[in-house]
Structure prediction request, 147 residues.
Amino acid sequence: MADNEGDYEGGMDDTMIDDGDDGDLLDEQEQLDDAAFNPADGGGANGSNVVHSGQPLGEDGQEGRKVPSEQRMTTPYMTKYERARILGTRALQISMNAPVLVAIEGETDPLAIAMKELKADKIPLIVRRYLPDGSYEDWSVQELIHD
Prediction:
């Protein structure tokens, strides 16, 4: 048997830890959330209608150059990751009272409405695909092939 059975004290002292924070973190986070998403501005989580696919690789956080539409080299098929991000972004917009672009017929779930909009090719978002050289391609959801 163990020598110190029943001596467990819970691991914490009764003294309070003061880190100098008065609990304003929630208020700051709410302000950041309000500033980051405004459905009236155009839609995306960053205030535009662009949904990023991948990470930019440019130096110093600079965005690369845009590849013209006629010189695109990536596949025209929507990936499952892009689909998830598009549906999530659009469902968030719908839940924040953005206008619905299809007949909802009694639907109340924002994700179901977003799926219906995707099926009808009515989602007003752009997928930005970053390339290894730092440039990017913009594809509208209507241009991408999905099922």
In short: Residues 80-95 form the longest helix (16 residues). The first strand starts at residue 50 and ends at 53. The CA atoms of residues 64 and 117 lie 31 Å apart.
